[in-house]
């Protein structure tokens, strides 16, 4: 009896698809990029593998309790499954990694972690609706989904803000958050300045003789300097010399004038300016 019902339901969805394609004048499966199968009273849908380039699918407002028709529709970008009777999507959607819009509201989905796991490979998903499902009432629902799908911009018709993103990271990615807190100016920090320079104590620096071996360090200058400021000033004077050379073009005769001159032409005077 169950098999008979399945065949009947598949026949019903086949007829709905056939009628839609005839209405749109589409004769080849490869030309199908959208299918509108809403409000068809469907409890099952025939496998849609033959539509290799299907990108948008409406199956909303039917009687679907599971979704088994999308095993090879990898190019789907928009999927409407709202207003059905879905009780699980486990293993049914995770391969649809090109999805950008997914509507699942007003179903019977439960078990938050399993539902969230179904989306963790959807890196382009930016709009997701799950409201009016039992799963949306579970503790930590919104933060877990924001953490699982970093690309989300709109969840249950509400914009995902930076505050929520940061909060989700602090809750569900605590180890990485601890590492981020030790990062300062692009490199790891060994702790706050107070750890090394307690308040009230004057900071002092001494020149380590061994540090003179560091390449391109002003501490390599000979003779060694008494303090850091003196060494820096000395190095600045050496490194800031600019040489600028000019000569007066107006005093250089042209070719015709040089050819007619009785005496050889002397080279022009070159003026060199040195700036510090």
Automatic annotation (TrEMBL):
Query: What highest taxon heads this organism's lineage?
Result: Eukaryota
Ranges annotated as spanning the membrane: none
Classification via Pfam families: LRR_9 (PF14580)
Fetch the Gene3D superfamilies from UniProt. Answer: Ribonuclease Inhibitor
SUPFAM superfamilies from the UniProt entry: Outer arm dynein light chain 1 (SSF52075)
Q: Which InterPro entries match?
A: LRC72, LRR_dom_sf
PANTHER family recorded for this chain?
A: LEUCINE-RICH REPEAT-CONTAINING PROTEIN 72
Q: What is this protein called?
A: Leucine-rich repeat-containing protein 72
């Amino acid at each position: 009896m169950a098999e008979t019902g399945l065949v009947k339901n598949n026949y019903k969805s086949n007829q709905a698809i056939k009628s839609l394609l005839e209405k749109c004048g589409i004769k080849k499966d490869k030309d199908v990029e959208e299918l509108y199968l809403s409000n068809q009273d469907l409890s099952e849908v025939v496998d849609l593998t033959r539509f290799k380039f299907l990108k948008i699918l409406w199956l909303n407002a039917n009687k679907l309790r599971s979704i088994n028709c999308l095993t090879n529709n990898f190019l789907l970008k928009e999927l409407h499954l709202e207003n059905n009777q879905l009780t699980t999507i486990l293993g049914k959607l995770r391969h649809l990694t090109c999805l950008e819009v997914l509507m699942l509201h007003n179903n019977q989905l439960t078990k938050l972690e399993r539902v969230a796991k179904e989306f963790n490979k959807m890196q382009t998903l930016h709009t997701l609706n799950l409201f009016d499902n039992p799963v949306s009432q579970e503790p930590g629902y919104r933060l877990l989904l924001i953490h699982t799908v970093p690309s989300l911009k709109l969840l249950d018709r509400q914009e995902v803000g930076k505050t929520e993103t940061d909060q989700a990271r602090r809750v569900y990615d605590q180890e990485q958050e601890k590492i981020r807190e030790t990062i300062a100016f692009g490199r790891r920090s060994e702790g706050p300045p107070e750890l090394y320079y307690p308040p009230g104590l004057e900071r002092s620096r001494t020149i380590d003789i061994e540090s003179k071996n560091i390449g391109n360090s002003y501490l390599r200058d000979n003779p060694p300097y008494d303090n850091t400021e003196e060494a820096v000033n000395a190095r600045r004077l050496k490194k800031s010399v600019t040489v600028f050379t000019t000569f007066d073009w107006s005093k250089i005769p042209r070719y015709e004038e040089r050819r007619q001159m009785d005496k050889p032409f002397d080279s022009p005077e070159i003026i060199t300016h040195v700036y510090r």
